[in-house]
Specification:
Layout: H1 2-23, E1 27-34, E2 39-41, E3 46-52, E4 59-67, E5 75-83, E6 89-97, E7 114-124, E8 130-138, E9 151-153, E10 155-164
Antiparallel strand pairs: 1-10, 2-9, 3-8, 4-7, 4-10, 5-6, 5-8
Length: 167
Amino acid sequence: METIQKNKTLWMLLLVGTFCVSCNDKMEFSQYKTIKNSSWQTSDKISFNFNITDTLAPKNLFINIRNNSAYEFSNLYLITALKFPDSTKVVDTLQYKMADETGAYLGNGFSEIKENKLFYKERKIFPKSGSYSIEISQAMRKNGEVEPLNNLEGIQDVGFSIEKIDK
């Protein structure tokens, strides 16, 4: 009887896993990196490597941030460096809203951890096929200060994802 119950559980897990994979066929790339002790140092650049084969279809690129209640800011400044196969590099400074006017964190999640899917590039067409990389670093400062924060507390994970666009 125990073997039958285990087999039912295994089949249910396989069915749920197949359903989840088929629901998100738009996803071309998705990866997360954990920030040690939820403390993102200014010198830490989070890197993701990915391959592009389709140079015709536009794609949406996202930076994904998981923060917890130790995050004390209502916004987030990031610096990105997108490197192309021919060694061209595009650097951007980005600002994202992380909390509303009342201080409540934006993003999805039922616990103290919130996940934010932040647009990085919308309808991006990659000009060349090959190996690309992106480096993401935090650029937070306290109001009125010039020096960056050495440690940005409350960021648990940083992710990067690429999605196909529905036609």
